[in-house]
């Protein structure tokens, strides 16, 4: 695994551990954001579980690279969905940038993991 992929995997892991855990813990800000986007509580918890699973896959990817690759691809799909929901809610571009940026980082990570 390259140094860049290692750093990206760590950053993505830390980000999605926090976000996924926040959704599962029912942090008020997370619930308000889900309500704003029209995401049901059940779907919000499911997304939290998927984010935690992706974080675990990224960690496992240090030993089994195919799991890191699968986790990165899963995060790309989650972030495409997040951008869709923000666009559907007619959020300003500033609210689309974080999930889009994380999606791009996940794409880069997937490409790097797929090349090695």
TrEMBL record:
GO terms for cellular component: membrane. It comes from Amycolatopsis cihanbeyliensis. It comes from the Bacteria. It is found in: Membrane. Its main location: membrane. The chain crosses the membrane at residues 45-64, 69-87, 93-115. It is a multi-pass membrane protein. InterPro entries: DoxX. Keywords: Membrane, Transmembrane, Transmembrane helix. This is DoxX-like protein.
């Amino acid at each position: 695994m390259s140094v860049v992929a290692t750093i990206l995997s760590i950053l993505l892991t830390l980000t999605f551990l926090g976000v996924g855990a926040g959704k599962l813990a029912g942090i008020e800000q997370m619930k308000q954001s889900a309500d704003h986007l029209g995401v049901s509580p059940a779907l919000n918890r499911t997304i939290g579980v998927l984010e935690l699973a992706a974080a675990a896959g990224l960690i496992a990817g240090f030993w089994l690279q195919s799991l890191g690759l699968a986790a990165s691809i899963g995060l790309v799909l989650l972030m495409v969905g997040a951008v869709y929901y923000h666009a559907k809610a007619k959020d300003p571009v500033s609210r689309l940038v974080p999930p889009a940026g994380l999606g791009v980082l996940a794409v880069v990570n997937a490409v790097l993991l797929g090349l090695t």
